[in-house]
Amino acid sequence: MLKLAVAAAATATFVFASGSALADTASANFQVKMTIVRSCSVTAGNASDISLGTTVQPTATNQTGNNTISVTCSKTTPYTVGLLPSSTNGGTTDGTGAMSSVANSATNTDKVPYSLYSNAGNTTVWGNTVGTGANVVGGTGTGAAITHTVYAKNTNANFTPDSYADTVTVTVTY
Questions:
Q1: Separation CA 148–CA 121 (nearest Å)
Q2: Are 97 and 113 contacting, i.e. CB atoms less than 8 angstroms apart?
Q3: Per-domain residue ranges for the chain?
Q4: Which of 86, 94, 102, 118 could join 163 via S-S bond, C-beta 3.0 to 4.6 A?
Q5: What is the pLDDT of residues 112-139, one digit of tens each?
Q6: Quick one: DSSP state of residue 83?
Q7: The model's pTM
Q8: SS3 (DSSP) at 17
Q9: Which CATH architecture has domain 60-173?
Q10: Is there a contact between 137 and 150 (Cβ–Cβ < 8 Å)?
Q11: Is residue 170 within 8 Å of residue 69, measured between CB atoms?
């Protein structure tokens, strides 16, 4: 009888320990969340400088050059890129500016005019005006860098021999 009682107790312990009493469950849920906001960045700087070359002829005209800027915006984000020549040298929102002397600004007050364009034929002005009469370049973000080529043209080289430069501000609106 003692053997039977020990066997019954062992069986009961085995059934309890095997998890039959743990068959009920409770559950809950949670979420993994993230908010992605629109964003854009622009890459310009020294690598984007445009050189109109060197001329020895005061009668030289239509000197041109180009370079690129890159815009990276989040996917499906519409944007515009505006270019604004320095107002210090008379730059305007219509993409026209003037270069001043780099090293001799105290003695050389010449301002060498130039214009910015969005096409190689230098016919589509690239400025900083949005809305009616817009002269900006637009696009839609892909999450990767999108390259835009900027073209510049100077129509007159009859100025004091010197090195000239101007700063253009690139503005991305999104």
A1: 15
A2: yes
A3: 60-173
A4: 102
A5: 999 999 999 999 999 998 776 789 999 9
A6: E
A7: 0.80
A8: helix
A9: Sandwich (2.60)
A10: no
A11: yes
